[in-house]
């Protein structure tokens, strides 16, 4: 059950939009299943409400939540909404009506729906951790009974750009291609702007020769293959998602070329495997494993005092790999 690797979310109004990773479209009915058991002496049940268990990074976050709370003597259930905001609201309402939970951990499918659910949880004095900043659910600042696990997208984008710039300079990069998924992971203006600014500052002699969008690995490989024909000197890839990074790696292999570096903003299992295999140079990811402990401790504190203000906890970012 333990999962200590860094998790990446390429998501928040964020949480929902950025977590809707290309290639991770959910299918089937929403499910609710016990993730584990702390035995007869459980202190109570915590429900983890997820947009989809099919997203690697979200599933890994759920594993971290389960591990933490089972260690603290609670049981944990996973409530999979299958990207259905209404379904997630119904799941939360059912948990409230049946008095089955003492706390909730919510990754919203839709911020406006989640805001209504949060108000209902507050009225029922059931504390919650929300993945995303207060503004993502229409709130400002600390809230009674609610803790926020808040990603810093400027920091995330800057780390991707800085990592790619260092890689380009150290690896004798000539030109770069900037790849992103359409309207999804890593696709916020803040992230994209931070990537472009930090890369330009760190590698001023390595211009971004072209940009491309792709929703999955196959289309990313096609896109990069075409870009390599038009830009034969490009040997640096800045990829805002796992899928675009993996597609780029495939395109270089198909062209029998060796990239100076491929830097991915992501961190799913396939990207980590590609990093370990040497096909991707670096992965920048959200380190949810570090944030779970702090947010989890705050949730336990609020279970004892559900009207107290919850914390706003910044999700760390980390880079793995490098040339």
Automatic annotation (TrEMBL):
<dbReference type="InterPro" id="IPR025997">
    <property type="entry name" value="SBP_2_dom"/>
</dbReference>
<dbReference type="GO" id="GO:0030246">
    <property type="term" value="F:carbohydrate binding"/>
</dbReference>
<feature type="domain" description="Periplasmic binding protein">
    <location>
        <begin position="46"/>
        <end position="301"/>
    </location>
</feature>
<comment type="similarity">
    <text>Belongs to the bacterial solute-binding protein 2 family.</text>
</comment>
<dbReference type="InterPro" id="IPR028082">
    <property type="entry name" value="Peripla_BP_I"/>
</dbReference>
<keyword id="KW-0732">Signal</keyword>
<dbReference type="GO" id="GO:0030313">
    <property type="term" value="C:cell envelope"/>
</dbReference>
<feature type="signal peptide">
    <location>
        <begin position="1"/>
        <end position="25"/>
    </location>
</feature>
<protein>
    <submittedName>
        <fullName>Substrate-binding domain-containing protein</fullName>
    </submittedName>
</protein>
<dbReference type="Pfam" id="PF13407">
    <property type="entry name" value="Peripla_BP_4"/>
</dbReference>
